[in-house]
């Protein structure tokens, strides 16, 4: 999922790759990663979109680059996870993230779901 986040991925296909039933795969995945496979995939997609938006990509370009098919769903999910709209995130300065090494910036800017 981390490598192919922009590809259409589904639980039955992932479970088949792991030689598990879809239900068992979902349970084991949630135990290992703390979230469902879909939530994990969406978090990775939003993480990549955040990097694209910081680099100056448009919201539409970021949306399509990470494999989202609907701009509305992408924006809703982005807002749910990040806590602000993609446009607002893109518009604000990101000087701190640009000043630190990329490995540290990636760790510190990793999105977390707001509940």
UniProtKB/TrEMBL annotation:
Superkingdom, taxonomy of origin: Bacteria
Domain HTH araC/xylS-type, first and last residues per copy: 1-92
PROSITE patterns in the record: HTH_ARAC_FAMILY_2
Signal peptide, first to last residue: none
UniProtKB keywords: DNA-binding, Transcription, Transcription regulation
InterPro entries referenced in this protein's UniProt entry, alphabetically: AraC_XylS_family_regulators, Homeodomain-like_sf, HTH_AraC
Pfam family, one: HTH_18
Example GO molecular function: sequence-specific DNA binding
The keyword Ligase is assigned to this record: no
Protein name: Helix-turn-helix transcriptional regulator
Organism encoding this protein: Microbacterium ulmi
Top-level taxonomy: Bacteria, Bacillati, Actinomycetota, Actinomycetes, Micrococcales
């Amino acid at each position: 999922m981390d490598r192919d986040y922009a590809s259409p991925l589904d639980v039955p296909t992932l479970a088949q790759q792991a030689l598990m039933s879809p239900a068992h795969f979902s349970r084991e995945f949630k135990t290992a990663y703390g979230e469902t496979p879909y939530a994990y995939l969406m978090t990775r997609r939003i993480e990549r979109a955040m990097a694209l938006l910081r680099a100056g990509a448009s919201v539409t370009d970021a949306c399509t680059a990470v494999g989202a098919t609907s701009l509305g769903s992408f924006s809703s999910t982005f807002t749910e996870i990040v806590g602000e709209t993609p446009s607002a995130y893109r518009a604000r300065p990101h000087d701190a993230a640009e000043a630190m090494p990329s490995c540290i910036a990636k760790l510190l800017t990793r999105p977390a779901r707001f509940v």
